[in-house]
Each structure stands twice: as structure tokens, then as C-alpha cells.
Design brief:
This protein has 179 residues and is of the alpha/beta class. It contains 5 helices and 5 strands, in the order αβαββαβαβα. The protein folds into 2 domains: 33 residues; 131 residues, Rossmann fold. The N and C termini lie far apart (55 Å).
């Protein structure tokens, strides 16, 4: 191999290494360790895809029980539709099924609730990998202050969740930019 080809190959490999490193850092920051907020007193705690028994629903109820909010809102997903959890003493429990059944649909529905109920501060409980995109969508849909309190993704799905979130974030940034 000629010295010129070796030099081009080295520069190409170095550029690929830098790009790979940047991609891994972005993945870590956006989906593995995204910015999150401390729970605070809010008007409502929302669990995304928080079917009964899910870590998200349990965390939303726990936060409300600990005094974060008087209202827990749970987005029901799954096929067939999951039932709403049993009422929790002293808390108002609101369950809904988003249409469309995705994070944007959840943000739109919660934004309508926030307007109707005059909520100004909301905690959103999502899986950690979903936090960045959920924050962006909720901020697009409502003027309420959004606090993101993520829960861990199931370990067996981490790679899938990160790949899904890259694609979903790209779509939200380029194709579906409205609330």
C-alpha cells in the first residue's frame, strides 16, 4: 500500500473513531443518563404507558402518596387495553388511552387535561430512555412546567429501547414537529 493510501486510511479510521465516540456520548446523554428533575410539589403526576403493575405507574402513585400531587394520571397502553389501577386513598386517579397510542398522543391528551384542570406544574414519569423525547413533546404541547422523573428501563430491552428512541427522536425532530 502506498504511503498516500495509508495516510488516507488512517485519517478515515480516525474520523470514524471520532464519529463513533460522538454517537456513543450522545446516546449516553440522551437515552441512558438523560437530564432528569427532582420531584417537587406539582398539580399532577403522569405515568406514560403506566399500565397497572408497571414501574412507571407504581412510581407515579408513590410520588403522589409522598405528597407531590393530589392527582395521578395514568396512560393505559397495551393490547388489549389494560384496566385502570384501583383507586388509592386520598388521591384522584385519572386513566386514559392516548389516541394515537404513542408519546405524542399522551402529551396531547395531558395538555388538554392541564388546560381544563388549570395545572401549571406536572411530573411526567417515563422510562429513562424515553425521557428526552417525552420532555420535548410535552413542552411542545403545554405551557405547564414539566418535571421529568424517569424510572429504569427493563435491562433486557435497553438496546432495543435506545435504538427505538433514536428513530422516534429523529421523527419528532424532522417529520412530526407539531404537538
Amino acid at each position: 500500500m502506498s504511503p498516500r493510501r495509508r495516510k488516507v486510511l488512517r485519517w478515515t479510521l480516525a474520523a470514524l473513531a471520532v464519529l463513533t465516540g460522538m454517537f456513543l456520548l450522545a446516546t449516553a446523554r440522551l437515552f441512558v443518563w438523560p437530564p432528569s428533575d427532582r420531584p417537587a410539589r406539582v398539580d399532577a403526576v403522569v405515568a406514560l404507558g403506566g399500565d397497572p403493575g408497571s414501574l412507571r405507574a407504581k412510581e407515579a402513585i408513590r410520588l403522589a402518596r409522598d405528597g407531590a400531587a393530589p392527582v395521578v394520571v395514568i396512560s393505559l397502553g397495551g393490547y388489549p387495553e389494560a384496566p385502570c389501577p384501583r383507586p388509592v386513598g386520598g388521591l384522584t386517579l385519572v386513566c386514559f388511552r392516548a389516541r394515537p397510542l404513542n408519546t405524542r398522543g399522551e402529551a396531547e391528551h395531558v395538555a388538554r387535561l392541564a388546560t381544563r384542570m388549570h395545572w401549571h406544574r406536572i411530573i411526567v414519569v417515563s422510562e429513562r430512555s424515553q425521557t428526552t423525547r417525552a420532555r420535548m413533546l410535552f413542552k411542545r404541547c403545554t405551557d405547564a412546567t414539566i418535571l421529568m422523573v424517569p424510572v429504569a428501563d427493563p435491562g433486557s430491552r435497553q438496546a432495543y429501547d435506545v435504538a427505538y428512541e433514536w428513530a422516534a427522536l429523529a421523527k419528532a425532530l424532522t417529520v412530526v414537529r407539531a404537538c
